[in-house]
Specification:
By secondary structure, the chain is α+β, with helices and mostly antiparallel strands. It contains 19 helices and 21 strands. The strands form 5 sheets. It has a 7-stranded antiparallel β-sheet with strand order 1-20-19-15-14-9-8. A 7-stranded antiparallel β-sheet has the order 7-4-3-11-10-2-21. The chain has a 3-stranded mixed β-sheet with strand order 16-17-18.
């Protein structure tokens, strides 16, 4: 299955990792936390949980103990999906937001308590450990607790994003106390400790999450929310359970891409690949404007449908199967003009701040896991004494009563974070993901096309310049893209902006590709240089 070309034509000359046991994420110390669990005799699930917990400390801008999460894993025999996105507080009705923000509000606020849904990441850790883990759950929290108590030197990318968030968030409840030591963001290389998070991580480990959802952490969150006008309660926490789901998939070039079903946007990648399957991309040069244009237009068509139809499954007007119907996607593909950029509208299928990590072990278990606070630092609300930095996923709801994603008590909002998994003939091939809001399905498509159509190895596919569609005809491209390609795309009508800073605009990915028998041939792993990612293994 190792069908790749091992040349490295792009600016980054990072080499892939070959190993039988691998953990890859965007902070090397968190990847090492996962590796510690494998060395203790744990499996890929144990490694993923330990790395995820550590990431809440090492990258607090992107995720925290108040994050949501999703997972797709291969247990050695079959795929499983886990939706650990949070639900709206019971008090959240349309009238609740209209009374507070007026009839003209389009969505719940981006920051503050009225952006906070029940956090699901801790529930994901517990559910994964109970069903698939080998090590004691408390052991999995140890590296994160050590990092929070002892502290660490803040790396450049984290320091940059931390400083960028300060002006917007410094006055939100609990934020300055938790994240502004000395009244400012930590500088590069400055030592930072998070003892409040260590306290909560220890409680989570000792009680297998009970203290978080049905104990003192939930009660403290309710008290602090009430003090600052929030509606979330300990009862909302207690009612929460992650949901095991069946991943949805779409075939492409003999492989099948699997994503978590709605309320997430993973279906966008499946739609785009279903459209691209109507074209012979391999007949085009890999980095040509022709190849890039087709991918961009397919992604536009996918987003047009996703933003119109995707919500909590209980309120969707169409099914994922209708959105992925082959005949429907063939009709959508015919709308693409190879020479002209277009602003597509939704079709009618009814007629037919984030971290990602992945781990794999020599017994064949592979884990694709993502967790996020959404915007940088999420809601900006941090429960004092517990280091509980809460996401702002409620901002993903609509306040339009006619929209399927309209807010309602206990409902899950539209979600951007999406883990991915690739199989062939029912067998595992790759666990992977790309971070960055609506860049995520775009990153899935761009990297997969490079690997499956053009046989680029995972590291080269990861390093290649990317584009990011932003709506209408607007497109960002990495400044390292060939100027001739940029010019040709502009001539087709794409409104381009060249971006030097890749952190927010083009995501960052982690990839583990199975080479054969994992106990013998192992895996090849790639990690994105855009966020100092690292794959470690043995």
């Amino acid at each position: 299955m190792n069908h790749f070309q091992y040349d490295f034509p792009y600016a980054s000359k990072r080499l892939p990792l070959f190993a039988r046991n691998v953990v890859a994420t965007s902070h090397p110390a968190a990847a090492t936390a996962g590796l510690r669990m494998l060395l203790k005799g744990g499996n890929a699930v144990d490694a993923a949980i330990a790395a995820a917990a550590a990431m809440t400390v090492y990258e607090p801008v992107s995720n925290g103990l108040g994050s949501d999460a999703f997972c797709i894993l291969w247990d050695g025999h079959r795929l499983h999906g886990l939706n650990a996105s949070g639900r709206a507080p019971q008090a959240w009705t349309l009238d609740y937001f209209r009374r507070k923000y007026g009839d003209g509000a389009k969505a719940p606020p981006k920051r503050g308590w009225d952006a906070v849904t029940v956090p699901g990441a801790v529930g994901a850790w517990v559910a994964l450990s109970e069903r698939f883990g080998k090590l004691p759950f408390a052991d999995l929290m140890e590296p994160a607790i050590e990092a929070a108590e002892r502290g660490y030197a803040v790396p450049p990318v984290v320091a940059h994003k931390w400083a960028a968030a300060v002006d917007e968030l410094r006055d939100l409840p609990g934020f300055a106390e938790a994240f502004l030591p000395h009244g400012r963001a930590p500088r590069v290389g400055e030592w930072w400790q998070f003892p409040a998070a260590a306290r909560t991580l220890r409680l989570i480990g000792q009680t297998r999450g009970e203290a978080f959802y049905r104990g003192e952490v939930a009660q403290a969150t309710e008290r602090f929310a009430r003090e600052h006008g929030g509606a979330i309660t300990a009862a909302d926490f207690a009612a929460y359970q992650p949901e095991w789901v069946e991943p949805i998939g779409k075939s492409y070039r003999g492989y099948t891409l699997h994503e978590i079903p709605p309320n997430g946007q993973g279906i966008a990648a499946l739609i785009a690949l279903g459209i691209l399957g109507q074209f012979d991309l391999s007949a085009l040069p890999v980095d040509s404007a022709d190849a890039q244009h087709l991918q961009i237009e397919a992604m536009k068509l996918a987003f047009a449908d996703v933003y119109r139809y995707v919500s909590d499954p209980s309120s969707m007007e169409v099914t994922p199967a209708q959105m992925l119907d082959d005949a429907y996607l063939a009709r959508r593909a015919r709308l693409i003009d190879p020479r002209r950029a277009q602003d597509f509208q939704a079709g009618n299928p009814a007629t037919g701040g984030t971290i990602y990590l992945t781990a794999a072990d020599e017994r064949g278990m592979m884990v694709s896991f993502i967790q996020s606070n959404f915007a940088g630092f999420g809601s900006g609300c941090v429960v004092p004494g517990y280091g509980l930095s809460l996401q702002n996923r409620g901002h993903g709801f609509s306040l339009d009563p006619k929209h399927p994603n309209v807010v309602a008590p206990g409902k899950r909002p539209f979600h951007t974070i999406i883990p991915a998994f690739l199989t062939r003939d029912g067998q595992p091939v790759m666990s992977f993901g790309v971070m960055g809001a609506h860049m995520q399905p775009q990153g899935h498509v761009q990297t997969l096309v490079r690997m499956l159509d053009f046989h680029q190895n995972p590291q080269a596919a990861c390093d290649a310049p990317r584009w990011r569609y932003n709506g209408g005809l607007e497109l960002n491209v990495e400044a390292s893209m060939d100027p001739a390609v940029v010019q040709a795309l502009a001539e087709r009508g794409h409104r381009l902006a060249l971006i030097q800073d890749p952190y927010q605009d083009f995501g960052a990915g982690q990839f583990i590709w199975r080479l054969g028998d994992p106990g013998r041939e192992g895996y090849v792993a790639a990690s994105d240089p855009r966020r100092d990612g690292q794959a470690v293994g043995f």
